Amino acid sequence: MLYLIGLGLGDAKDITVKGLEVVKHCRKVYLEAYTSALTVGKEALEEFYGRELILADRETVEQEADNILKDADLCDVAFLVVGDPFGATTHSDLVLRAVKLGIPYRVIHNASIMNAVGCCGLQLYNFGETVSVVFWTDTWKPESFFDKIQKNTQNGMHTLCLLDIKVKEQSLENLMKGKKIYESPRYMSVNQAAEQLLAIVQNRRLQGEEPEVTENTLCVGLARVGAVDQKIASGTLQQMSTVELGGPLHSMIIAGNMHPLEIDMLKLFAVDESSFEDNECQRST
In this protein, which residues make up the domain named Tetrapyrrole methylase (predicted)? Predict the structure, then answer.
């Protein structure tokens, strides 16, 4: 049996009782280590679970999945995922491969950023399409995610922005030379995401557009959701470029039209409450 087990968002103790029971009896336990991260390391998980964990990076999961599934054909194997197992399409691919090979699987769910963002007070059923904001480089500055944000905004919907994570990534030079040398891990902050969005706003204006999303659009910055040192800040997109939320992981929400209760909740985390007085147009009618 292949078990896909969600670990939740905080630390080792966020695993469900059902998930922990399964981990303790599985012969092999893999820890997916590239789509997200907990606030504790592998060693803390091993101590709490009482089991040795095998780190599964992107290369292992995407290119060597047959090794994981070969084990699952012989014994019970657990595949641990931060958040919920289906927060990333890679894990759907693993399930499809297992089914094709005739290997039974079971999913044990947990909280993910997709629903935990409700902690800021914005109602989950008012969210539109989720977008990923990627790190720009000197030669690659995609803006496609901004168009999706604008579409959500036009429909009065909130947008959850998942911010880029670079773990065990190779530089272009080392990749071309075939050198297995990896860059240091990088985690995008709310500040960096806001700066890129502000740059896109300026680019669109230079092209003669007046974008739906501007410097004064209300946003929410979230850091380490689910952890004891979780932080939330609400304010304009401009304010998000300077707000200090500490270490990773960060995510950001671009607010759409809001119910008065949503506004009252966001005011609890306001960088400056006057920002809400200037954004009455975002109040739901």
Answer: 1-178
Q: List, as residue ranges, the binding site for S-adenosyl-L-methionine.
A: 9, 84, 87, 112-113, 163, 225, 250
What integer pLDDT is reported at residue 17 of this predicted model? Answer: 97
Measured between alpha carbons, how far is 47 from 57 in angstroms, rounded to an integer?
21
38: tokens are 């907990």
Binding site per annotation, positions: 9, 84, 87, 112-113, 163, 225, 250
Domains and CATH numbers, the chain: 2-111 (3.40.1010.10), 114-281 (3.30.950.10)
Give the closest residue to 235 by CA, choosing from 224, 223, 243, 246.
243
How many other C-beta atoms can be found within 10 angstroms of the C-beta atom of residue 64? 13
Distance CA 135, CA 141 (A): 8
Q: Which helix (H) or strand (E) element contains residue 54?
A: strand 54-56
Q: How many other β-carbons are positioned within 10 Å of the β-carbon of residue 203?
A: 14
Cβ(90)–Cβ(4) under 8 Å? no
Let me know: does 16 contact 35? Beta carbons within 8 Å. Answer: no
Please answer whether residues 243 and 150 qualify as being in contact, where contact means their C-beta atoms are separated by less than 8 angstroms: no
Per-residue pLDDT, 285: 46
The pLDDT value recorded for residue 167 is 73
Name the pTM for this structure: 0.89
Q: State pLDDT tens for residues 99-155.
A: 999 999 999 999 999 999 999 999 999 999 999 999 998 899 999 999 999 999 999
Nearest to 82 by CA among 43, 39, 125, 49: 39
